């Protein structure tokens, strides 16, 4: 068992890895809750671990890393809209546009599309 210490274990190990100035840092998880190796969102911790990684990336790259915590919620919001509207071709076409925007790195446009659909 590795105590996640409220996210401090990830922060510590990530900071330690970054201080070594490596070319690459590989973040891996086996979804083993008991060993504290989760990274993906969970009901218990939300997006906490991904937000820690985002903060480290922002510290490393400054404003060149423009992603925000709210961006992490886009995939679930997209999934939920698809699940709630399986036969609505117009909504699914707009969701396809949101996916294309995400892939292009245009999260502002993707969020606007999803926000509009969520409001309906």
How would you characterize the overall build of this protein?
The structure is a single chain. The protein is an all-alpha fold and about 120 residues long. The chain has 5 helices and no strands. The longest helix has 15 residues, at about 90-105. It is globular. The protein starts with 7 loop residues before the first helix and ends with a helix.
Structural features:
single chain; 120 residues
Short description:
The chain is an all-alpha fold and 120 residues long.
Instruction: Report the oligomer.
Output: single chain
Main sheet attributes: strand count, strand direction, barrel closure? none
Give unreliable regions as ranges. none
User: On the 0-100 scale, what is the average pLDDT?
Assistant: 90
Number of DSSP E strands: 0
Distance between the termini: 45 Å
| Rg over CA atoms | 17 Å
| Structural class determined from secondary elements | mainly alpha
Overall body shape:
globular
- Compressed to H and E, one letter per element, the order equals HHHHH
Number of helices: 5
- Secondary structure: helix percent: 40-55%
What fraction of residues sit in β-strands?
under 5%
